[in-house]
Design brief:
The chain is α+β, with helices and mostly antiparallel strands. The protein is 20% helix and 47% strand. It contains 5 helices and 13 strands. The radius of gyration is 20 Å and the shape is globular.
């Protein structure tokens, strides 16, 4: 029958498409290689990123510092006043001019968990086996017209992220995740662009974050000016000021 022949044809085409899809582990390995190699990223112990952060009409200089295994410090300005968010491997804390009279304040719950995840500057897809993260190929989807593979990363802590890798370069073009903050679900998507080489490693120098919360959509654009690999950083910069 015609419909049966059609069904067999579609089954054959579907199996061929499935066979053509690469193994997700091969994609992950290609991603590591494309941006400089897994070993080179493991050798990176400290990282300092400086640039400009813009949201609506507000524009602020930004300084982001990382120290392995799990320390991070973000500093930026609001109306000329300095805001700091940091995690020292155990405690998360912040200093904001309009909170607690600008005194250092400890983080708890979702806010602390967010800082702990931020400390992983290599990202959830990198070195995923060591981190206990599971990968699955989630499909194909173009990002800004670029054909891409979509990978789902299920983290060891139960969270999940989606990563879009360009089919031609295997560089990450987009990431997306959902999280809970103060009892509300927040969706965060990041578009990564303007890749440049720094010390043999590739970094996106333009990151556009789209944040969805309570039906509102906020867009944050980060333009990176400079990246320093393995600079000396004083441990005290990450510790809670007592």
């Amino acid at each position: 029958m015609v419909w049966m022949r059609s069904l067999m044809l579609w089954t054959l085409l579907g199996s061929q498409a499935l066979a053509a899809a690469p193994a997700v582990e091969d994609l992950a390995a290609g991603f590591e290689q494309a941006r400089g190699g897994a070993e080179a990223w493991r050798d990176l112990q400290t990282l300092v990123i400086s640039g400009t952060m813009q949201m609506d009409d507000l524009q602020s200089p930004m300084l982001l510092e990382f120290q392995r295994p799990d320390r991070v410090r973000l500093q930026f300005q609001v109306q000329g006043m300095t805001v700091v968010q940091a995690y020292d491997g155990e405690h998360g804390w912040s200093v904001a001019p309009f909170v607690e009279e600008g005194l250092p304040t400890l983080m708890f719950g979702d806010e602390l968990a967010e800082m702990r995840e931020m400390a992983d500057f290599a990202g959830a897809l990198a070195d995923h086996k060591r981190k206990g993260n599971q990968l699955s190929l989630d499909g194909e989807e173009a990002v800004a017209g670029v054909p891409s593979w979509r990978i789902k990363v299920t983290k060891a802590n139960g969270g999940a992220e989606l990563w879009w890798l360009a089919k031609d370069s295997l560089l990450a073009l987009r990431t997306a995740s959902k999280r809970v903050s103060s009892g509300q679900q927040i969706g965060v998507a990041s578009v990564l662009a303007d890749y440049r080489e720094v010390g043999g490693l590739l970094f996106p120098f333009s990151v556009t974050n789209t944040i969805q919360r309570d039906g509102a959509v906020l867009e944050q654009v980060i333009i990176i000016d400079q990246i320093k690999l393995n600079p000396t950083i004083d441990n005290q910069r990450f510790r809670f000021p007592r």
